[in-house]
Amino acid sequence: MSLLPFRRKSAHPDTTAPALDGILAGYSIEVMPRTADKVSDFRALLPKGTRVYIAHIDGTEIADMVATARRLAAEGFEVMPHFPARLIPDAATLTDWIARYQGEAGVRQALLLGGGLATPRGAFDNSMQLIETGAFDRAGFTHLHVAGHPEGNRDIDPDGSDAMVMQALRWKQAFAERSDARMAMATQFAFEAAPVIAWAERLKAEGITLPIHLGIAGPAKLQTLIRFAIACGVGPSLKVLQKRALDVTKLLLPYEPTEILSDLAAHKRRDPDSLIEQIHLFPLGGIKTAAQFAIDHGGAATLPMHAKA
């Protein structure tokens, strides 16, 4: 995949904003059909070739998902729709979704995840079952991303451990080693670098080498972020927001992820071979706000030289 470098100047450039050592180069971003509908032209916001994940939330019609994918592809972006296992009733539906994405939008990339439902709608409970169907291989998908959980996942490991999460990662690592698909982990968003770095180093020590595309919440009101963080099960790094909320001088100011990104950039300088390969932005404060933040802090469409997935 060859992507063109791109940088759009802010209408109100901040000459003091740190470039963060290119940590945002090649970033991806997530949208939903209903949020995408509010953007008249993504080409005015995102660098050409940016990977755009399309979140499939329960209740969203596949027709709306495919229409969003078709539009983004036509505007020049790499489209990666979610395939939430627990929302897919059977193998025939999975095959149909794949065919529609390919036929109407040329999609060859997918994020496979369990999905937010407590009870599966049908045959599938997790992303491994989706992979085992062979449907993505038969369709010639080039990129298969899976979910990563730096701070654990209570839905998967109710006891607070990460035993089942790690078992699943070992399975996915083994699949990556025998597959031609380019695989990576897209993670939930975090607010503190240290736990994420420790998690990445632990994975490498245990022989898991899937590149990590780390979720970062874009600028947003503090109250908005805390609400999303609690709903999404963000773990120990939530204390960063809670501490900020206690400071009345910061309570009403928008949160920006400059501190965690600066810490991650420093980590990448020390360890260029870190599994933390790219940043994935969750635009919780709005797509335009997140895109402008990326522009102002060195975001570009060109993938880092070390990028694998």
Would you mind describing this structure in some detail?
The chain is α/β, with parallel strands linked by helices and 309 residues long. It has helices spanning 33-36, 62-74, 91-105, 127-132, 135-138, 163-178, 193-205, 222-231, 238-245, 258-270, 287-296, and strands at residues 28-31, 51-54, 78-84, 109-113, 143-148, 182-190, 212-217, 276-282. The protein contains eleven helices and eight strands. An eight-stranded parallel barrel has the order 1-2-3-4-5-6-7-8, surrounded by four helices. Strand 2 (51-54), helix 2 (62-74) and strand 3 (78-84) form a beta-alpha-beta unit. Helix 2 (62-74) runs parallel beside helix 3 and helix 8 (222-231) runs antiparallel to helix 9 (238-245). The chain is globular. It comes from Pseudooceanicola spongiae. This is Methylenetetrahydrofolate reductase. Keywords: Oxidoreductase.
List its salient traits:
FAD-linked_oxidoreductase-like, alpha/beta, 309 residues, oxidoreductase, eight-stranded parallel β-barrel, disordered N terminus
